[in-house]
Amino acid sequence: MATQPEMARSQIRFILGGKIVSVDAIEPTRTVLAHLRESLGRPGTKEGCAEGDCGACTVVMGELCDGQVRMKAVNSCIQFLPTLDGKALFTVEDLRREDGTLHPVQEAMVECHGSQCGFCTPGFVMSLWGMYLQHTKSGVNDSRPEESEIRSALTGNLCRCTGYRPIIEAGAKMFDLPIVDFHRDALRENLLAIKRESALSIEYKGQHFFAPNSLAELLQLRATHPKATVLAGSTDVGLWVNKQFRDPGDIIFIGEVAELKTIQANATMLTIGAAVSLSDTYEALREIYPGMNEMWERFASQPIRNAGTLGGNVANGSPIGDSMPALIVLGALVTLASVAGTRQLALEDLYITYMKNAIAPNEVLTAIEIPLPKSGRQFRTYKVSKRFDSDISAVCAAFSFLLVDGRITDARVAFGGMAATPRRAALTEAAMNGKQWNEATARAAMAALAIDYVPLSDMRASSEYRLSTAQNLLYRFYLETRMVEPLSATSVSVFA
């Protein structure tokens, strides 16, 4: 018989409906959605796409961050149940008030006729509730969101019936109704009560799930299990399981490693831990590089950004990943660690070929370092896709250079979607370096792009379209920067 400490290590515990839920002997890749519907009797959360795209499965998750409760909307269809350990889960069933009446979010949806067939409605309600919590505290309406914020909160939710307008109207209407307070202090106490003293470790039918609490423990586990799948936000790995039916084998989850969840800055670098969410990453980046503003909004959806991590996006190395071109032209470095020590690589050197990188089997990517802007630096990044919101790029471009005495130095051009890996355009950069930034230089650089890349044709775009788009984006960069004052050096505080 297992001892009490061993049982505690393998028991998943989370808060649901104000009560502690304990789960033993569970498959590590069982999704939160499946457990809600099949084991917990909560069918309000729906499965639409099983890939984090449609939002019918949206739930809100609460966790302790620096001792305070933090709430975020995520897709339950691609989140594995063991990652819920130590957290709180909220579904549409939790919004019903004690007297049985509707929550203002639900009431506004009814009044604005925001639901027709109703299948997607619970997901919309939970996304709106996540935004509602950000604007209402202590029973008062702290601030009223602009329509753009309401639209942003709903980027991860699709509806085939309503045309979205009544749902957006409900997002505004809910703040006109009497405020329903959320008891964060009570939730904080509940979360403290289930805070884990030892790292979670699960074994089910020969498959292991580890959730180390420290970097040292993570590196030791990686040394012992070099073939294990390293799991961060599950926004990619969840699709491996759901759509490709891949067996990830043993899993090492990095989401509980405190050292990997920090953002820090010194005089020259912004360092982002591998387990920092994409939401927090882009919020920090856009403060120092305003050119990241549009990409922050267009990278997937809010629930995906809330769950996914920059470390996972970089380590996965998809040729159409939206983070990498911008980070490459900014000169980002990655830190790789093992029990033997650490080493750094330029991000552009991390990628070897399609979906293969230079991370050794005993290593873990622990951080991304991004240089702070220099005076005279110009930078832009652009994304072209079939949909504006929550879509995969056909082409993702990034451009950067320094202007010294009116001439270009350190030109850096990188693209996603144009090759088997995110890659710089060496001949294009050579056509720019040392030249004045004028029409002739821009045209010469555009011609060089046709030699740098021979893009593939696929369902998203033809080779010809991709090349033409890449050239046009370079010309757009020229038009936007030829008369613009250069980006000045920015003072940056240390992020907690």
Walk me through the structure:
- With 496 residues, this protein is of the alpha+beta class.
- It has 2 domains: 1-197, Roll (Ubiquitin-like (UB roll)), CATH 3.10.20.30; 271-496, Enolase-like, domain 1.
- Helix content is 31%, strand content 23%.
- Strands 2-1-5-3-4 form a 5-stranded mixed beta sheet. A 5-stranded antiparallel beta sheet has the order 12-13-18-14-15. The protein has a 4-stranded mixed beta sheet with strand order 8-9-11-10.
- Helix 3 packs across helix 6 (165-173) and helix 16 packs antiparallel against helix 17.
- The two termini are 43 Å apart.
Write the layout of secondary structure elements.
Elements: H1 4-10, E1 12-16, E2 19-23, H2 32-38, E3 58-65, E4 68-75, E5 88-90, H3 104-111, H4 121-135, E6 136-137, E7 140-141, H5 147-153, H6 165-173, H7 184-193, E8 200-204, E9 207-211, H8 215-224, E10 229-231, H9 237-242, E11 251-253, E12 263-265, E13 269-273, H10 278-288, H11 293-298, H12 302-307, H13 310-316, H14 324-329, E14 333-338, E15 341-346, E16 351-353, E17 356-357, E18 364-371, E19 377-384, E20 395-404, E21 407-416, E22 423-424, H15 426-432, H16 439-452, H17 463-481
Parallel strand pairs: 1-5, 9-11, 10-11
Antiparallel strand pairs: 1-2, 3-4, 3-5, 6-7, 8-9, 12-13, 13-18, 14-15, 14-18, 16-17, 19-20, 20-21, 21-22
